[in-house]
Specification:
SeP, two-stranded parallel sheet, selenium binding, alpha+beta, selenocysteine, SEPP1 protein, 7 helices
Length: about 150
Amino acid sequence: RLEDLRVKLENEGLVNISYVVVNHQGTYSQRKFHLLKESVSDYITVYQQDEQQADVWTTLNGNKDDFLIYDRCGRLVYHLGLPYSFLSFQYVEESIKIAYCENKCGNCSYTEPDIDGICENITKKADEKLAEIELQPTGQHSHHHDLHRHRHHH
């Protein structure tokens, strides 16, 4: 699913995003490392923690299955836990887009100059999708969480 999201975002023009999966440092997880590695593409880095090192997740106040989304300047823009980190919802995707397109944490000198067109497009598309959903006579369109659900089926 993460690879699908990566490809989708790349097709929308969101390039140069780094995706890193951090494996648990326990022996059991280390033994499963190859399975984890095989289930993602080469574009997604799988990082194996050493048993001796300080646990990355503890350091980041995170849990298994969390998503931490950083901007170009390495600032944490979003920290999503379950259920928001399920990729069947749009929270991770939206969070990446916001981190990519909006200066949530103030300006960053690494922002790419040609980003405006792409981001304008993304917001426009999101608005169009919302408008499209509004027009559907489902009788449920006023609920925000339903929007997310319908939006996912398009």
